[in-house]
C-alpha cells in the first residue's frame, strides 16, 4: 500500500519567487477542452505532488469544508466553556487525559491529534501569549477576580502550563538531534509556540502556588483527591526540573528523574478517581491549525500505556547517566548499544539525549576529542606501532623527518575516519529499522575506507620501518594496523545487519538455514581476522620484551597496553565463537527440517522468482562489498543445504555446535560486559550491566531450546531407522518458529524452532 | 455472489464509471486516504497496469469487487521498477484468489514491459497480503518504522525478475535533501538514506 504521506514519497520541490498574474480566463478556457480524468502535468509533477494534493470540498481533506445542514459555528466552534466550574474529580480527569496525549506525542503522533485537541490548551496558547500572565483560560476578561475557582485558574492552569513547557524541552532536544520526521517524531507546531520564551522558573512558581493552595484545602476537598492532584503537580515539577537539567548535558545528576518515579506509581493508583470530560477535547481545533494536512482522528492511548511510557522514559534517562563513566571506546560502545537496544527501545527523546551526550561541542562526552577517541580504539584493538599514534606535526617541524610525514598521514586518517567511527556509536540512537538500513549503507562506506586504510598502511610501514613478520611458509607479511582495524569494524557491521534481519522478521522460513550459515560464515571470517591481529600484537609484544629488560617506562606501558588488547581480543573471540557455534547448530538443525519437509516455505512453486534471484536480493547490501567476497550462489546453495553430508553427520554437527555454543555463552557471561583498565578499574554501570546479562541469559535459554529441538529430531530419526522403509517414512514431527514478541522466542536474534510430534 | 468473475484492464474512456467505484473500494479496505490526484497520477500514466475484478451478478453500479493499481518506471536512473501502489478486494470476496489473480495480471503486464524488479510496501500487520506476495516470490527487504499515517510500520517487499538487478547502479542523491528536520539544526553525521517509492 502506497503511503499517503509527503515525507515518504519524494523530495520537496523548490518554488522560486514568482510574479502573479490573473490566468482565470485562460485556465477556464484550456480546462474546458479536457475530458474528465485527463491529466495534464509537467515532468516535475511527481507522486509527491499527487500525494500532497488536497481535494477542496471533500470532508476528509478540506479542513474548511462545511457539510450540508451544518453552519459555520457548529462546524468550526466548540460550545464547551473552558471557564466553567470544575469538580476536583474533573480536574483530575483532564490532567490524566492530557498526560495520555503528551505521551502519545512522545510516541510519535502529531500535536494536532494529541495535545492540541485540548480546548484548555488551545485557550492558553492561542493567540500566542506575550507573557505568562496572558496565558489564561479567561483571556477576554482582564478582571482576575472573575476568573472563577482556583481549582481551574490556579491548579489546572499551572498543570497545563508546566506540561506545555515540558513539551518545549522535549521538542527542542529532539529537533536539534538526528531523527526521522513523522517516523520517530512530529516536530510540527502549527504556528504555535510551546512557551519557549519563558523561563522554567515561572512555571515552577505556578506549580508551587498550586501545591500550596491544594495543601490548604484540607476539609474542603477529599484527602484522596487532594493527594492525587498534588502528586500530579509534583510530577510536573519534577519533570520540568529534570528536562531543564538535560539541557545542560554535563550535569550527571539523576535526582530529578528519580523523584518523578514514585509519582508515576501513585498516578497509576489514583487514576480511577478522575472523571473524564470528552467534550474538553475536540477534533475541530485542527481546522484552525496552520497545517496542510486534513484533520485526523484524536489519538487515544490508555492511561496505563501512558504511565508505562513515562516510567520507562524516566528510568532510561536515569540509566543513561551510566554511560558517562567513560572507560575506553570498547566499553563505551557496549554501554551505548546495550542501553539503546533495550526492549521496548528507549523513546526518541532518550535517543536524542544520547546523541547530545555522545557528541557535544565536537567532543565525545563533551571532553574527549575525536582524535583521542579514535586513537584509543586503535590502541585497544590493533595496538599499532606506537610511532604512528605518537607522532605529532607540532613537535616535528622538519618535513623530511619520517615522524613529520607519519603525523601528516595520521592527521589525514583522523579527518577521514573520525566521523564514520563516531557514527558507529550514533547509529545506536536510531530506531531499530533505521539502524539496520543505516548499517546497510555504512558497510559500503567502510569497504571504501578499508581500501584507503590499506594504502595508508603501506605508506606508513615504510616510514616507520616496520619489521616484516615471517610466515611458516617462508613468506613475510606486515601488520596493516589501520586496515585491520577498519576490517574489524566492517565485519561487526556485517554481523549486525544479519542479526537485525532476524530481529525485524525479515527472513522467510526457507531462508533460515541459509542465513544462519551466512552468519557463521561471517563469524569465521571475523575470527580468522582477529587471529591475524593477535599474531601481530603478540610478536610486537615479544620484541618489546627485550627492551623491557632495560626497564624503560615506555616499554612497560606498551606491554600493559598490549596485554589489555590481547584480553580484548580474547573477549571478542569468545563472543564471536559463541555466535558462530550457535549459528552453525541452527543451520544444521534447519537443514534437517528442510530435508524432512517440515520447514514451512513462504514462496510457492508458482513464484515469479527463483532461489538464485532471491539470494541476489538478500545479498543486495553486500553486493558492492569487495571484502569479504560475495559467496557465489552455487557455493552458497551447497553450503546452505550441507550437500553431501548425511543426516547423521548433520545431526552430529548440530549437537556438537550447540554444546560449544553453550560453553562459549557461559564464558561470555562470566567475563561480564566491560573490560577492566590496566589498573583493574571497571565501569560502574549496574543497570546497563543488568540489561547486558539478561540479553546473554536469554541467548542461553535459546541455546537450551535449540538443544531440545535437536534432541527431538535425533529421536525421531533414530526411531525411523527401525522401520522397514525408513527413507520414505515421514519423520513424524511438526515445527513452529515462534515469532518476535512471543514468549517462546527466547531471543530476537535466534529463531529456534519448537519441535513436537506431528498430529 | 456469483462464481463468474470477470477481470478487466482499466480503460481511461470509462473513468467516470470506474474511478468512483475504485475509490470507494480502496477507501473502505485500505487505511491510507488518497486524493483523486493520486488515482489520476497512476491511472493516467499506467492505466494498462491497473486491473479490476467485476462481479456481473451484482447491481450495475456496484460490480467492482477488486482492484490493483501500479506503476512502472526507472528507479533512480537504475533498474526498471514496478511498484504496486494499491490492492484491495471487497471483504466478502476474500479468500478466493482474486487478489492473487489481480496482482499476477499486473506483474505479467510489467514483465511484458521489461520490468527488472517489483517493489511494494504493506503494513506489517497485514499477514494475508504478506503471504500473498511471498507466495509469488517476493522477499521482505526491510522494515519501515511507523510508515503509515496510522502509525503502523511496513515491510518493503521486493521481487527481482532478472539476474544482476541488485548490482545495477542507481544515481546517488543527497540523503538529507528530503529530511524536513530543523534546517538550522546540526548537520547530521549519519548516512541515513530515505526510501522513496
Automatic annotation (TrEMBL), chain A:
The main place the protein resides is: cytoplasm
UniProt family annotation: Belongs to the MAK10 family.
Q: Where is the NAA35-like TPR repeats domain?
A: 343-716
Q: GO terms for molecular function, please?
A: transferase activity
Q: Kindly indicate where the leader peptide sits in this chain.
A: none
Would the keyword Heme turn up in this protein's UniProt record? no
Q: Which UniProt keywords apply?
A: Cytoplasm, Transferase
Where located?
A: Cytoplasm
Q: Which GO terms describe its cellular component?
A: NatC complex
Family matches, as InterPro entries: NAA35-like_N, Naa35_N, TPR_NAA35
Q: Spell out the protein name for this chain.
A: Putative amino-acid N-acetyltransferase subunit Mak10
Q: Which residues form the NAA35-like N-terminal domain?
A: 37-203
State the coiled-coil residue ranges. Answer: none
From TrEMBL, chain B:
Which keywords has UniProt assigned to this entry?
Acyltransferase, Cytoplasm, Nucleus, Transferase
Q: Which PROSITE patterns match?
A: GNAT
Which Gene Ontology terms cover its molecular function?
protein N-terminal-methionine acetyltransferase activity
What this protein catalyses is: N-terminal L-methionyl-L-tyrosyl-[protein] + acetyl-CoA = N-terminal N(alpha)-acetyl-L-methionyl-L-tyrosyl-[protein] + CoA + H(+); N-terminal L-methionyl-L-isoleucyl-[protein] + acetyl-CoA = N-terminal N(alpha)-acetyl-L-methionyl-L-isoleucyl-[protein] + CoA + H(+); N-terminal L-methionyl-L-tryptophyl-[protein] + acetyl-CoA = N-terminal N(alpha)-acetyl-L-methionyl-L-tryptophyl-[protein] + CoA + H(+); N-terminal L-methionyl-L-leucyl-[protein] + acetyl-CoA = N-terminal N(alpha)-acetyl-L-methionyl-L-leucyl-[protein] + CoA + H(+)
SUPFAM superfamilies on file: Acyl-CoA N-acyltransferases (Nat)
Q: Name one GO cellular component term.
A: nucleus
Q: EC number(s) of the enzyme?
A: 2.3.1.256
Signal sequence, renumbered to the chain: none
Q: Where in the cell is it found?
A: Cytoplasm; Nucleus
* Presence of the UniProt keyword Transferase in the record: yes
Could you tell me the superkingdom of the organism this chain comes from?
Eukaryota
Write down the top EC class of this protein. transferase
Is Acyltransferase included in the keywords of this UniProt record?
A: yes
Every copy of the N-acetyltransferase domain together lies at 8-162
Question: Which PANTHER family does the record associate with it?
Answer: N-ALPHA-ACETYLTRANSFERASE 30 (PTHR45896)
Family, per entry: Belongs to the acetyltransferase family. MAK3 subfamily.
| Protein's name in the database | N-terminal methionine N(alpha)-acetyltransferase NatC
Amino acid at each position: 500500500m502506497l503511503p499517503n504521506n509527503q515525507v515518504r514519497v519524494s523530495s520537496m520541490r523548490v518554488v522560486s519567487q514568482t510574479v502573479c498574474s490573473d490566468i482565470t480566463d485562460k485556465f477556464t478556457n484550456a480546462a474546458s477542452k479536457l475530458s474528465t480524468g485527463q491529466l495534464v502535468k509537467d515532468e516535475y509533477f511527481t507522486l509527491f505532488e499527487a500525494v500532497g494534493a488536497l481535494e477542496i470540498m471533500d470532508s476528509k481533506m478540506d479542513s474548511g469544508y462545511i457539510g450540508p445542514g451544518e453552519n459555520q459555528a457548529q462546524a468550526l466552534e466548540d460550545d464547551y466553556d473552558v471557564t466553567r466550574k470544575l469538580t476536583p474529580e474533573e480536574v483530575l480527569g483532564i490532567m490524566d487525559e492530557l498526560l495520555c496525549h503528551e505521551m502519545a506525542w512522545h510516541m510519535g503522533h502529531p500535536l494536532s491529534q494529541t495535545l492540541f485537541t485540548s480546548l484548555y490548551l488551545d485557550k492558553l496558547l492561542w493567540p500566542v501569549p506575550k507573557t505568562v500572565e496572558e496565558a489564561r483560560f479567561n483571556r477576554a476578561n482582564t478582571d482576575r477576580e472573575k476568573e472563577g475557582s482556583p481549582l481551574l485558574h490556579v491548579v489546572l492552569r499551572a498543570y497545563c502550563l508546566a506540561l506545555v513547557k515540558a513539551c518545549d524541552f522535549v521538542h527542542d532536544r529532539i529537533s536539534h538531534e538526528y531523527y526521522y520526521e513523522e517516523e520517530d517524531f512530529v516536530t510540527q507546531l502549527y504556528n504555535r509556540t510551546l512557551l519557549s520564551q519563558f523561563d522554567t522558573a515561572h512555571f515552577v512558581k505556578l506549580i508551587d502556588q498550586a501545591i500550596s493552595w491544594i495543601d490548604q484545602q484540607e476539609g474542603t476537598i477529599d484527602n484522596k483527591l487532594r493527594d492525587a492532584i498534588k502528586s500530579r503537580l509534583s510530577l510536573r515539577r519534577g519533570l520540568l526540573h529534570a528536562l531543564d537539567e538535560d539541557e545542560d548535558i554535563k550535569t550527571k545528576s539523576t535526582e530529578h528523574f528519580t523523584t518523578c518515579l514514585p509519582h508515576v506509581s501513585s498516578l497509576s493508583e489514583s487514576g480511577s478517581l478522575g472523571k473524564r470530560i470528552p467534550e474538553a477535547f475536540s477534533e475541530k481545533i485542527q481546522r484552525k491549525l496552520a497545517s496542510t494536512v486534513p484533520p485526523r482522528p484524536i489519538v487515544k492511548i490508555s492511561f496505563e500505556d501512558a504511565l508505562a511510557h513515562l516510567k520507562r522514559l524516566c528510568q532510561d534517562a536515569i540509566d543513561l547517566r551510566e554511560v558517562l563513566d567513560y572507560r575506553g571506546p570498547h566499553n563505551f560502545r557496549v554501554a551505548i548499544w546495550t542501553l539503546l537496544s533495550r526492549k521496548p527501545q528507549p523513546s526518541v527523546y532518550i535517543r536524542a539525549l544520547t546523541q547530545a551526550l555522545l557528541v557535544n561541542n565536537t567532543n565525545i562526552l563533551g571532553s574527549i576529542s575525536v582524535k583521542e577517541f579514535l586513537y584509543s580504539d586503535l590502541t585497544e584493538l590493533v595496538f599499532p606501532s606506537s610511532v604512528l599514534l605518537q607522532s605529532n606535526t607540532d613537535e616535528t617541524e622538519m618535513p623530511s623527518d619520517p615522524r613529520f610525514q607519519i603525523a601528516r598521514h595520521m592527521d589525514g586518517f583522523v579527518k577521514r575516519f573520525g566521523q564514520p567511527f563516531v557514527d558507529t556509536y550514533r547509529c545506536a540512537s536510531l530506531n531499530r529499522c533505521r539502524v539496520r538500513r543505516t548499517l546497510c549503507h555504512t558497510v559500503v562506506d567502510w569497504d571504501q575506507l578499508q581500501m584507503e586504510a590499506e594504502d595508508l598502511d603501506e605508506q606508513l610501514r615504510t616510514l616507520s620501518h616496520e619489521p616484516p613478520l615471517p610466515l611458516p611458509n617462508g613468506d613475510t607479511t606486515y601488520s596493516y594496523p589501520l586496515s585491520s582495524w577498519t576490517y574489524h569494524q566492517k565485519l561487526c557491521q556485517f554481523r549486525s545487519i544479519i542479526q537485525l534481519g532476524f530481529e525485524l522478521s525479515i527472513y522467510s522460513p526457507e531462508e533460515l538455514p541459509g542465513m544462519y550459515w551466512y552468519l557463521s560464515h561471517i563469524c569465521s571470517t571475523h575470527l580468522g581476522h582477529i587471529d591475524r591481529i593477535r599474531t601481530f600484537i603478540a610478536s610486537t609484544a615479544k620484541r618489546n620484551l627485550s627492551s623491557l629488560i632495560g626497564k624503560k617506562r615506555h616499554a612497560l606501558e606498551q606491554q600493559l597496553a598490549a596485554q589489555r588488547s590481547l584480553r580484548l581480543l580474547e573477549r571478542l573471540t569468545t563472543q564471536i565463537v559463541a555466535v558462530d557455534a550457535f549459528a552453525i547448530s541452527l543451520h544444521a538443525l534447519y537443514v534437517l527440517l528442510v530435508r524432512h519437509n517440515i520447514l514451512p516455505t513462504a514462496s510457492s512453486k508458482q513464484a515469479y522468482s527463483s532461489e538464485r534471484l532471491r539470494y541476489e536480493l538478500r545479498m543486495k547490501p553486500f553486493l558492492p562489498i569487495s571484502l569479504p567476497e560475495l559467496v557465489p550462489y552455487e557455493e552458497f546453495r551447497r553450503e546452505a543445504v550441507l550437500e553431501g553430508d548425511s543426516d547423521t553427520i548433520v545431526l552430529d554437527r548440530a549437537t556438537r555446535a550447540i554444546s560449544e555454543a553453550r560453553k562459549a555463552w557461559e564464558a561470555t557471561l562470566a567475563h561480564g560486559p566491560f573490560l577492566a583498565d590496566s589498573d583493574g578499574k571497571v565501569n560502574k554501570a549496574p543497570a546497563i550491566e543488568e540489561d547486558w546479562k539478561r540479553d546473554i541469559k536469554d541467548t542461553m535459554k535459546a541455546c537450551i531450546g535449540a538443544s531440545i529441538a535437536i534432541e527431538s529430531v535425533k529421536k525421531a530419526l533414530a526411531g525411523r531407522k527401525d522401520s522397514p522403509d525408513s527413507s520414505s517414512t515421514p519423520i513424524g514431527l511438526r515445527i513452529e518458529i515462534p515469532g518476535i514478541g512471543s514468549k517462546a522466542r527466547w531471543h530476537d536474534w535466534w529463531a529456534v524452532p519448537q519441535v513436537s510430534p506431528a498430529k | 455472489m456469483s462464481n463468474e468473475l470477470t477481470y478487466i484492464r482499466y480503460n481511461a474512456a470509462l473513468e467516470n464509471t470506474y474511478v468512483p467505484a475504485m475509490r470507494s473500494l480502496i477507501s473502505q479496505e485500505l487505511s491510507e486516504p488518497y486524493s483523486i490526484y493520486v488515482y489520476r497520477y497512476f491511472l493516467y500514466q499506467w492505466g494498462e497496469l491497473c486491473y479490476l475484478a467485476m462481479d456481473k451478478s451484482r447491481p450495475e453500479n456496484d460490480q467492482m469487487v477488486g482492484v490493483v493499481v501500479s506503476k512502472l518506471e526507472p528507479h533512480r536512473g537504475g533498474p526498471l521498477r514496478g511498484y504496486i501502489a494499491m490492492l484491495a478486494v471487497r471483504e466478502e470476496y476474500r479468500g478466493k484468489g482474486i487478489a492473487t489473480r489481480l496482482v499476477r495480471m499486473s506483474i505479467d503486464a510489467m514483465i511484458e514491459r521489461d520490468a527488472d524488479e517489483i517493489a511494494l510496501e504493506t503494513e506489517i500487520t497485514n499477514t494475508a497480503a504478506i503471504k500473498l506476495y511471498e507466495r509469488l516470490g517476493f522477499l521482505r527487504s526491510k522494515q519501515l518504522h511507523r510508515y503509515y499515517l496510522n502509525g503502523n510500520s511496513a515491510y518493503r517487499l521486493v521481487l527481482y525478475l532478472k539476474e544482476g538487478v541488485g548490482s545495477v547502479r542507481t544515481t546517488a542523491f543527497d540523503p538529507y535533501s528530503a529530511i524536513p528536520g530543523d534546517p538550522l539544526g546540526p548537520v547530521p553525521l549519519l548516512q541515513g538514506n530515505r526510501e522513496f517509492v
